[in-house]
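pasting for ref
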Amino acid sequence: MKVKSATFLTSNTDVAKCPQEPLPEYAFIGRSNVGKSSLINMLTHQKHLAKTSGRPGKTQLINHFLINGDWYLVDLPGYGYARASKKDKAAFQKLIERYFRERRQLLSAFVLVDVRHAPQPMDLTFMEWLTNAEIPFSIVFTKADKLKPGALERHTAEYLQAMEQAGWAETPPYFVTSSASGEGKEALLGYIGEINVAFRASQR
């Protein structure tokens, strides 16, 4: 699938005010500073669609982007930002949980993790929460260009192995990406395209 158009639609702190059109929706979420905005810009082939910042935790709203006029890409607030106050962290958590529980349009979530690092308890806990809430998700390994090919394969394998050792009966689909090189773009968009086709076939 190719992205022919990508338009910022709206930002919200209230899930009830998110777009109500019954279009397929895909949510991107991850720890602060994981490269989420850069990934979204890479996928949509636009440099400034999602705002990037050197300050982690900048995304504090639910941001909807309309892609090709027929599906939504959703940029959710990052979690795990150490400098956020307890009040802000609690508000972000409540917003995120409510979004996942109430958005009927959501077909899949994409959890971003930095491929350079070992599995973080916060990420694993969040993925476990998604599983218990019966929300389909995939893992998106970011910043692949920061590792040499051999190290990249090793880190990816070790991450999935750690999930199996933690009790995951089946690891979720995963994608290895780089916002700098464009690696993983076709695979990730192709996956979304396949889900869109299956969704529309089920609506007939």
